[in-house]
Design brief:
By secondary structure, this protein is of the alpha/beta class. 26% of the residues lie in helices and 21% in strands. It has helices at residues 2-30, 78-90, 110-116, 141-149, 186-197, 217-221, 259-267, 272-275; strands at 38-45, 59-64, 95-99, 127-130, 154-156, 160-162, 173-177, 205-209, 228-231, 293-299, 302-308, 325-331, 338-344.
């Protein structure tokens, strides 16, 4: 009888432990693999002016990136995009900004992308976008996309500066869209840089859109100071190490991008043929320290707020421990600079 009781209690204990292990594996390992969990990442920023005063204007900005829309729904589906649109509009943003790669390769699907989804986006001061490298995959791609978005609710920026809230309003946003893949017009770029650095723009929040995080170097190269830069392109590596909070604290358990480690491993293989094999994501970034998330960069005494969005679509079509995201940037929230995350069902 005693042995039966001990056996039964042991069985219940093992059953309880097994259940907890299975639940942990489902929620932390299997569920994130190949998932389309949409997450809203929130970034709270205070923008300090050079005179030491904190600007009191408050703006909510939503960033979308790397849609990779295609004729076949391999990289992103219409149902998922509708969830993105609904979630974005529910946030009641002041601005919606799209940082490139609207299409996968073929530019023709831009028409359906706009009609079905982008046309529904709503914000107080408009929707602005730049193109990414995938939008330039074909010779006529950029022109087809530009023509499709003409006279719509989407304003495409190609090395341009706009003032969505007005130019003379103190604390308003000077919005700069840099298209690093467009045919280089150095005179136009020089005018853009001069306008950013002009005394007249000192009372504005200088907000820059780029596609590739590596291109943030253009600021240092041209001695340009802005307050916020947002980018995409990297997809956060699409494959990341699992984030196991409070269990193991190593670089392989903190959710870090997997690609830079894989690239480093491949380059150490002593067979040239293998090293030269092209695979998706190869040489996506030079600086993987800017692979995803929020960073502060100091330019002399100037603080640059830099955020890299993990994107919505995929290339190739899967994600592991790297959920697609909508980014919400609350400017001048009177909080310390912080980030937070929630999942959208």
């Amino acid at each position: 009888m005693i042995l039966k009781t001990i056996f039964f209690k042991s069985f219940l204990f093992l059953k309880k432990i097994t259940f907890k292990i299975i639940l942990f594996l489902i929620t932390n390992v299997f569920y994130p693999i190949f998932s389309s969990n949409l997450k809203i990442e929130t970034l709270e920023l205070d923008i300090d002016r050079e005179d030491g005063k904190t600007n009191k204007q408050k703006f909510k900005i939503v960033q979308l990136s790397d849609i990779h829309y295609d004729k076949l729904p391999l990289r992103i589906s219409d149902s998922f995009l509708q969830k993105v649109v609904n979630s974005t509009n529910a946030l009641n943003p002041d601005l919606i900004l799209i940082t490139g790669d609207l299409v996968e390769r073929d530019p023709e699907p831009i028409t359906q992308l706009y009609k079905k989804h982008l046309s529904q986006l709503k914000s107080k001061y408009g929707v602005y976008a730049i193109l990414g490298n995938h939008d330039y995959k074909t010779t006529l791609g950029p022109e087809i996309i530009k023509n499709a978005l003409k006279n719509t609710n989407i304003t495409l920026l190609e090395n341009d500066i706009v003032y969505p809230m007005g130019k003379d309003k103190v604390g308003a946003i000077q919005l700069i869209g840099i298209d690093s893949y467009a045919k280089r017009d150095q005179n136009k770029l020089d005018r853009v840089y001069r306008e950013i650095n002009s005394t007249a723009s000192n009372d504005l929040i200088k907000f820059l859109l780029i596609h590739n995080p590596d291109h943030v170097s253009v600021l240092k190269e041209n001695n340009v100071k802005v307050d916020v830069v947002i980018a995409g392109h990297s997809h956060g590596s699409q494959i990341c190490f699992p984030k196991l909070n409070g269990i193991f604290k190593t670089r392989f358990t903190n959710g870090a991008p997997f690609l830079p480690y894989f690239e480093s491993f491949v380059q150490k293989i002593p067979i040239k043929f293998i090293r030269n094999i092209k695979y998706p994501g190869k040489k996506t970034l030079k600086n993987w320290e800017f692979g995803k998330g929020y960073f502060q960069i100091l330019q002399n005494s100037h603080k640059l707020n830099f955020y890299v969005n993990r994107g919505l679509g995929t290339h190739p079509p899967f994600r592991i421990f790297c959920d697609p995201e909508i980014t919400v940037i609350n400017l001048n929230s009177n909080n310390n600079d912080t980030t937070s995350s929630i999942k959208i069902d």
